[in-house]
Task: structure prediction
Amino acid sequence: MADKTIDIDIGDEITLEITIVKMLDGERASCQIAGYDHPFSMVVPPKSKPGDHFELTREAKRVDDDLGTVTVNVGYPITVRQASVGVTKAPPCKKPLRDKPT
Result:
């Protein structure tokens, strides 16, 4: 169980905090994502150096409130802890997703 859960729904914008650990060949870097406990390599902005922080915003694809996790796609799906992300609620739909019963 997670110690802190946030009200996250599928489609909400999730902000991930990323820290560059070391630079790799070319424009790629080994990065650490808050709430994700596995190594991660990605293309980073030019002139980035180890220790730099930046944010990555993606859409929530899957939410598990029981485990306190949310899955986002950053080239492939990763699952992070809800307590370590920022959330921007998706705007409400102007048109209902279902037709009215006839």
User: Anything to note?
Assistant: The longest strand covers residues 53-64.
